[in-house]
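I am writing to request your help with a piece of structural work I have in hand. The matter concerns a single protein, recorded as an amino acid sequence and a row of backbone structure tokens. Could you please explain, in whatever detail you think fit, how the structure tokens follow from the sequence? Thank you for your consideration; the sequence and its tokens are set out here:
>
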Amino acid sequence: MKKSCYFNYTPITILIVLICIFSTKTIAQHVSVPTQANYGQRKVVDIALLGAKNDGKTLNTAIIQAAIDDCSISGGGTVYVAGGGKYLTGTIYMKSFVTLHIDNGTTLLASSDISDYTDDTHKNMYKNEPHMDKCLIFAHNAESFAFEGHGTIDGNGYRDNFSQQRPMMMRFLNCRNIHLTNLNLVNPASWTSAWLYCDDITVSGIRIHSRVNFNGDGLDFDGCTNVRVSNSSFDTSDDSICLQTSRTDRPCRDVTISNCIFCSEWAGIRIGLLSRGDICSVTVTNCTFRNIKDSGLKIQMNEGAELKNMTFSNLVMENVPRPVFMTFCRIRTCVDAPMEVAPMKYMGNFIFQNIIVDNSKGDKNSCFFFSGMPNKKIENILISDIFMFVSGGGTAEDAARDSIPEFDSQTLRDEFPGWPEFFLLEGAMPASGLFARHVKGLTVNNFLVKTQTEDKREKIKFIDVDQ
């Protein structure tokens, strides 16, 4: 038998409840959101309520910086850039324990006046490129800071605005625990971001579009460790992601790149070139590459360190003439490097597997390319399960090429271009699918090449290769 439950409310009890409900509603109606609030140690600051203007004309640098400083000094907090429109700013300095939240529909707009950019934001680490030393957002020795919000940071980097000095959008130096999520980063005057000697980095859900000026790199990690990049898209006028090392004591290691989409005027992912320190323990998986002018994966050791232990899997590439372009040579690339380049050390231990390449609409200059040096070979490469469609068109003369320039001091010059690039090889390779030279320990399994038209070249060509 069920027992009935009931409450015996007296008139006095009912009256008390009604008074409490009415009082709560009345208080709620008269509570306003303050300009800034402390929730324990967390402060929230809306720059619009501090006087910032979203008209795209008023310079808001001082207000934004004051909000960042206030949150950091208070032990942490969030700076809101919200309300739609465009908030114009010059150089700002990110600080520890601060989140910069740029709301959906709102833009943080970089000033087009180079005098609004400061001179104490470190420098670009490549030689012959001091015109990229300035930047819009800078952090030094900061920890636990973040950028978020589904809004946009616009570098306003059009060539009419920046034809000589071209500031980067972001530069972080000796920082750790950084989060860059769910933002649009567009129109930088040069690189979108430079991360120098940073640790514990998470980048997810971002979109980079950097086509309005030269050298529009996306994410450049220099001597960084514990890096995770995922679920992001890139459309860049230069390399979309770079892993590099400008110091011998700061390796770039423990990097994962997954679920990303790449479109680039040059390379999708470049590993090395700037390579004074070791670069190792890298995985790239589940990514697509489309309309890459130069190379999908560009992997290059130049400055005497070790580049090793990397896997690349489950990739799809379309209109990418060199799916992989790997070189091992000696050339100075870092602005702080001694003029005498260190001796070649080690490059090896790579796996490339489960890759589809469709270059059927391209020309005959399409192939996987690997090149060590006669006296120093790349070691231990495994290539497996590759499906490659190419246009064909290779001639008997192409097939007979046996004199291909080495990437030595005669080919590589200190003046432009100065880097080991495919166009320095002076013509098509003698293979339609895979060309390798000066490699020790190369294993190839299930490498299928199909040509649209007749091609006189071998599908795979080795010179000075030990399998």
